[in-house]
Design the sequence.
């Protein structure tokens, strides 16, 4: 018989794993590319969505619009993205990566993938696919649960 898991302990393990992964990737990005993880994550969204608004980045990363705007400001100062007029909404800009930004994103993604391979995929082996699907289910269910309190 499988003993029930202590949900408080499970919560702490999930939080600690997230913090460990964030710290490991951020440290390598800083030391090898002089890049912050909080810059790489919005760049990944911009690359995936094409030209997008700050609001789109905030929604994708589940952060505040202010936080997303500060990240975009930092990325723009570094020359990794540029803003252009949004023809569909004069109140917002469209953000796209520059060629230099695309190069930095590719280098950053290599580090991200190496750390995830080493810290997750190598540890879980074939179970890493099941783990990824379980996380997707939990996130999808969490979004549904958030809409209506228990």
Sequence:
């Amino acid at each position: 018989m499988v003993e029930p898991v202590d949900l408080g302990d499970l919560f702490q393990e999930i939080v600690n794993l997230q913090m460990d992964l964030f710290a490991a990737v951020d440290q390598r990005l800083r030391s090898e590319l002089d890049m912050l993880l909080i810059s790489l994550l919005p760049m990944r969204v911009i690359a995936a969505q094409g030209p997008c608004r700050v609001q789109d980045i905030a929604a994708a990363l589940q952060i505040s619009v202010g936080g997303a705007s500060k990240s975009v400001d930092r990325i723009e100062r570094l020359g990794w993205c540029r803003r252009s007029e949004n023809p569909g909404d004069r109140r917002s800009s469209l953000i796209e990566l520059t060629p230099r930004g695309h190069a930095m994103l590719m280098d950053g993604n290599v580090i991200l993938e190496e750390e995830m391979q080493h810290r997750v995929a190598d540890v879980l082996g074939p179970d890493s696919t099941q783990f990824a699907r379980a996380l997707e289910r939990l996130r999808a269910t969490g979004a549904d649960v958030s809409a209506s309190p228990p």
Remarks:
- Helices lie at 7-33, 37-49, 54-61, 65-77, 99-124, 127-147.
